[in-house]
Amino acid sequence: MVRVGIIGGAGYTGGEAIRILLNHPDVELAFVHSNSNGGNRLSDVHIDLLGETDMRFTDQLRTDVDALMLCVGHGDARKFLEATPIPDSVRIIDLSQDFRLQATASIGNRQFVYGLPELNREKIRAARNIANPGCFATCLQLGILPLAAAGLLTGDVQVTAVTGSTGAGQKLAPTSHFSQRVNNLSVYKAFEHQHLNEIGESVRALMPSFSHAINFIPYRGDFARGIIASIYVDCPLSLEEVQKVYGDFYADAALTFVSDRNIYLKQVVNTAKCVLSLEKHGDKLLVMSAIDNLLKGASGQAVQNLNLMFSLDERAGLRLKPVAF
């Protein structure tokens, strides 16, 4: 059994990691750390866990584990590792943005590998430390990386995507109030979203000549969880040729699937899957990509990376089912 501890277990990503690891056949959830909830039952904070576990949060750090998941805020993971001696034998999976970019991918003697399995599976298998990708970054990259690998991104990439309110985290903000979010849509960080940096690095890793813009318009949706993105590019290939490009790229992917039908958000909510669909409209290729932002976009992908690091079945603990209605 792989012994795992969670740092920052009171938030959304921490809660999702707890839910998965409690039912993981090859993992023992050793402890869940929270500075503000030490001594409280996990089910006092994550009320859906009532009847699932009697575990309590601890405010004491333990290092008698095989791996730590850092489910803390952006900037806090680096501060935690700077202030806390963690044995080199303990592997780290960080869900913040602190180590995702090549320029910031190390601290001390720890070097982080970018944890997108569809891009870096073999590097993840050998890694000691993983920087888990961002939610938008995951959704968008899975939509466009096959084109980059085939050298087909020869112009600007146009993206519109809508995310659920959990993407903003648990801390209350004016744009996450129910009365502001419900029956409403709004654009934010147009053309400037921070996930564009990691997307760009991954695209150029597969297609070094890529020098065009990724024009990304993110929307806040009036639902709790999930991301659906529409991506279009100029593409001279036929639909059948593009389908082969995507089919070949994802032939060995455990949790990314290309559908021959129009996709929708409920296919992926409460799962660790990404589902894609392709359409040709004249010389334009339309790619639709959908994920659950808290699972494939965060904690589910972290567990997928954990499985790869410890030579487990890549889908262990992640055979989650969507809610049909």
TrEMBL record:
Semialdehyde dehydrogenase NAD-binding domain boundaries: 3-127
Subcellular location(s) per record: Cytoplasm
Pfam family, one: Semialdhyde_dhC_1
Catalyses which reaction(s): N-acetyl-L-glutamate 5-semialdehyde + phosphate + NADP(+) = N-acetyl-L-glutamyl 5-phosphate + NADPH + H(+)
Annotated metabolic or biological route of this protein: Amino-acid biosynthesis; L-arginine biosynthesis; N(2)-acetyl-L-ornithine from L-glutamate: step 3/4
Enzyme class, spelled out: oxidoreductase
EC code: 1.2.1.38
Origin superkingdom: Bacteria
Active site: 135
InterPro entries tied to this protein: AGPR, AGPR_AS, AGPR_dimerisation_dom, AGPR_type-1, NAD(P)-bd_dom_sf, Semialdehyde_DH_NAD-bd
SUPFAM superfamilies referenced in this protein's UniProt entry, alphabetically: Glyceraldehyde-3-phosphate dehydrogenase-like, C-terminal domain, NAD(P)-binding Rossmann-fold domains
Keyword tags: Amino-acid biosynthesis, Arginine biosynthesis, Cytoplasm, NADP, Oxidoreductase
GO MF annotations, alphabetized: N-acetyl-gamma-glutamyl-phosphate reductase activity
SMART domains assigned: Semialdhyde_dh
CDD domains to which the protein is assigned, alphabetical: AGPR_1_C (cd23934), AGPR_1_N (cd17895)
Family of the protein in this entry: Belongs to the NAGSA dehydrogenase family. Type 1 subfamily.
Protein purpose: Catalyzes the NADPH-dependent reduction of N-acetyl-5-glutamyl phosphate to yield N-acetyl-L-glutamate 5-semialdehyde.
UniProt xrefs under PANTHER family: N-ACETYL-GAMMA-GLUTAMYL-PHOSPHATE REDUCTASE, CHLOROPLASTIC-RELATED (PTHR32338:SF10), N-ACETYL-GAMMA-GLUTAMYL-PHOSPHATE REDUCTASE, CHLOROPLASTIC-RELATED-RELATED (PTHR32338)
Name of the molecule in the record: N-acetyl-gamma-glutamyl-phosphate reductase
